[in-house]
Sequence to fold (217 residues):
Amino acid sequence: MIGAFFDMDNTLLSASSGLLYLRYLRQHGYLPLSQWAQIMTWVGLYLAGALRFPAMMSRLMVLSAGSSEAEAWRMSNEWFQAMLRHYIAPGARERVAWHRAQGHQVAIVSASTPYAVHPVAQALDLGEAYLSTRLEVIDGRFTGRVIAPACYDEGKLILARDYAARHGIDLAQSYFYSDSHRDLPLLEAVGHPVAVNPNRRLARLAAARGWPVMCFY
Fold:
């Protein structure tokens, strides 16, 4: 079986789901200004390379510790309908449809949490075919801990290899679409790496290695 794996933020979506969610919470009064400023500081450190993704996620999850998972699902559905669905890139829909027409197994592989990835997968008719960063929930409430491995960097490759083994997918014949150099472990593991609207570092890598470059938006 040939797989077609897609990163989500800035690949299937024309923006970052995390930043869109923060904007939504702020616009609708769900996020106090002081908390928003703190989170944006962490995001800035992450984008600058001064804070690793797992560390940033751990800090963010502390803020949610004790809150209800049911409320997170309710909010994610509300947010998707109001905002996120409008950011699914037209080119991404076309490419997903193309792979499905070839009989390939399509799945999303995203550093985002299921509360962002699940509704996007549903909108693309992928069902439960997605991998994401999972949060620990006990008795219906978040503990503030991330379940290892986070679906990021080497963690994406670990989770994708496990998914491929369970579904009979040959990574050496499969595709992975991403915008970021941070996905290099999985890009190097598949037979058909594709840079989509790539950041500068990935654009340079793609040019040096002869990887195809596509624009979804």
